[in-house]
Amino acid sequence: MHSRSGFSLMEVMIALTLLTILVVKGAVLMRMMRSTNSSQTEAMLLNDQANLVLDRISLAIVGSDKETLFPSFENPFHTSAVAYSVSLGLDENGAIVWGDPESIGLEEDGRVVWKQNPDEDDERRLIWSDLVRPFLEGELSNGIDDNGNDLVDEQGLSFVLYKNSVTIRISLGADPTDPESATRTVETTVTVRNRPD
User: Fold this and answer.
1) With CB atoms 3.0 to 4.6 Å apart as the test, which of 34, 45, 100, 181 could cross-link to 174 if both were Cys?
2) pLDDT more than 70, % of the chain
3) Domain tally for the chain?
4) pLDDT, tens only, 127-156
5) β-pair partners for 106
6) How do residues 85-134 score in pLDDT, each as one tens digit?
7) Has residue 28 been placed in a domain?
8) Are residues 190 and 166 in contact, defined by beta-carbon separation less than 8 angstroms?
């Protein structure tokens, strides 16, 4: 009798089919894992940037003069830009010395821009973020309070003045023009100075 060695063609085909299925499933799983890691990393970076911008804005206006913050509006009021002056300390007569005028605002291209001496020849400007969404998370431009915070159509950067406090809200998006992209919204409230009489 002749002894048989090796695999038949059918056995080889079955083995190759099973191997192909395993390789494809493994590739799909790896792609899903990379996508998940990428989204988590994107969300973490967005969170870090949102908190950094919020801290910068808070620190910039916490020492500001309330009288320059919203000079002609009734409380409560919300806007996407503030102009202010910061106390530099006291002069020899005990009077407060105010610094150059500054402003922080949202520009049409989704940038948060800080300016010193705005609209002057010696204006200084810094872009603090270029990922701001057109409107706060959950808000649409429709004349309705969509996100339930008693304010209508707030932009992606919103300042709300009430008495001596300013609530700052900002929504950043991985792709600010895509409502489905990762979004992070943060907020804080700071108290500003009263100008001494």
Assistant:
1) 181
2) 82
3) 1
4) 998 888 888 887 777 777 666 676 766 788
5) 112
6) 887 778 888 888 888 889 999 988 889 999 999 889 999 999 998 888 88
7) no
8) yes
Phi-psi domain of 77 (left: phi exceeds 0; alpha: psi -120 through 50; beta: other)? beta
Do residues 188 and 167 make contact, with C-beta atoms less than 8 angstroms apart? yes
Which domain does 141 fall in, by range? 39-191
For residue 136 the two structure tokens come to 């706060």
- Residue 116 · residue 102 · CB < 8 Å: yes
Q: Which one, of 170, 163, 171, lies nearest residue 190 by Cα?
A: 163
CB–CB of 122/100 below 8 Å?
A: no
The candidate with the shortest Cα–Cα distance to 80, out of 188, 171, 192, is 171
Q: Does residue 6 lie within any of the structural domains?
A: no
Q: Vertex 91, ends 87 and 92: CA angle to 5°?
A: 160
Q: Is the Cβ–Cβ distance between 69 and 82 less than 8 Å?
A: yes
